[in-house]
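In response to the reviewer comment on reproducibility (Comment 2.3), we provide here a single inverse folding case reported in full, input and output, so that an independent group could reproduce the run without further information from us. The structure tokens appear first.
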């Protein structure tokens, strides 16, 4: 569902995200800082700066950045080149209205880029097909475990530099300032942007996709609660906790990164039995499921979770995730609020109202039967 055209932004309704572990590209979220770009058929990537062998490549396949840099004379796990390079800067052909004189760009430390297990990718495919234009065709960077702003789209150049990228979106935009600093013009014009580091790894987070916020349910309804969780930096999701009584007590959700059958519980709203839903293996289409169980591949992927519980409205259903380093989502947004609005990873909450005659009209049924209580279609179409 497009949210805006310039910049081009879009995301799907949460309830369609869980139909498959591998997100189809037509519903994959889209976040850009400007319009979608077009390119000519010929494409070249320039790699230059403080490295032994600067070069220009014609891209014909997708590879790990560590392997490409090794071809240019920079060994795996290099902290600094002999020429003094310590950062890898990614430069796009894209120009933003905030920075009309410089392209969109970002950087990561050279040691990150040259570590094979970091899986930094020069990507030309998405789900075994060419990357769509809105996701960076013909070539983009993918930096797993880091915020999306570091994965530059429409990649033009890679520069090996002595210093961190000084671009606007690296040094001024994606930084996390404390809650007491408010967004008002007098303060923003005098802010010391260098007082905070650029955001890199994203925090642990989780979300409830089913049921939807504001649902009406009868007292004691058995509800199949479902959602996802993910952590930055390649950290695993150690636990997903769900509360159906506004946080007074918790139970652990079942977590999966493979096939995931969803129980066919009759809907407490309309009595309908939902169709069978299966979360398929990522590589099932190729008949090659062995790859799926490699933790090196799965550490960057989301975790799907489910929890079946009785719900007694009025209440809130809440989810929070804990990663393998013991990081937990913050309780309230007040604890992490910042004037840039970044890293909002607090507990996700869904309000549940008590079903009464006439109150439930027009609310989407939580069982995904694609009906409202008034009988009309209730799920947005793509």
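Designed residues, in position order:
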């Amino acid at each position: 569902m497009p949210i805006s055209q310039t910049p081009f932004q879009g995301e799907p309704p949460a309830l369609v995200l869980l139909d498959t572990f591998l997100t189809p590209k037509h519903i994959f979220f889209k976040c850009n800082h400007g319009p979608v770009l077009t390119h000519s058929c010929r494409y070249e990537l320039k790699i230059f700066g403080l490295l032994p062998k600067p070069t220009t490549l014609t891209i014909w396949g997708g590879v790990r950045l560590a392997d490409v840099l090794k071809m240019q004379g920079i060994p795996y796990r290099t902290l600094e080149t002999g020429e003094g390079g310590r950062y890898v800067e990614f430069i796009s052909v894209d120009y933003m209205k905030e920075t009309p004189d410089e392209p969109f760009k970002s950087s990561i430390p050279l040691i990150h880029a040259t570590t094979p297990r970091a899986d930094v990718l020069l990507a030309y495919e998405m789900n075994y097909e060419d990357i769509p234009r809105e996701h960076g065709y013909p070539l983009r960077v993918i930096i797993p475990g880091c915020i999306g702003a570091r994965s530059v789209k429409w990649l033009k150049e890679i520069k090996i530099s002595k210093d961190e990228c000084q671009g606007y979106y690296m040094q001024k935009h994606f930084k996390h300032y404390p809650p007491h600093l408010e967004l008002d013009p007098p303060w923003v014009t005098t802010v010391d942007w260098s007082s905070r580091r650029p955001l890199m790894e994203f925090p642990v987070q989780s979300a409830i996709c089913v049921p939807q916020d504001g649902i009406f349910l009868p007292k004691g309804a058995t509800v199949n609660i479902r959602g996802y969780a993910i952590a930055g930096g390649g950290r695993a999701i150690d636990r997903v906790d769900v509360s159906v009584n506004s946080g007074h007590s918790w139970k652990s959700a079942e977590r999966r990164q493979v096939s995931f059958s969803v129980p066919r519980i009759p809907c407490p709203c309309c009595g309908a039995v939902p169709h069978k839903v299966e979360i398929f293996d990522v590589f099932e289409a190729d008949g090659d499921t062995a790859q799926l169980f490699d933790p090196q591949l799965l550490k960057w992927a989301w975790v799907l979770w489910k929890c079946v519980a009785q719900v007694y409205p009025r209440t809130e259903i809440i989810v929070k995730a804990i990663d393998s380093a013991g990081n937990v989502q913050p309780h309230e947004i007040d604890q992490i609020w910042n004037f840039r609005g970044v890293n909002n990873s607090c507990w996700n909450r869904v309000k549940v109202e008590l079903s009464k005659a006439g109150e439930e009209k027009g609310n989407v049924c939580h069982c995904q039967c694609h009906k409202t209580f008034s009988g009309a279609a209730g799920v947005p179409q793509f």
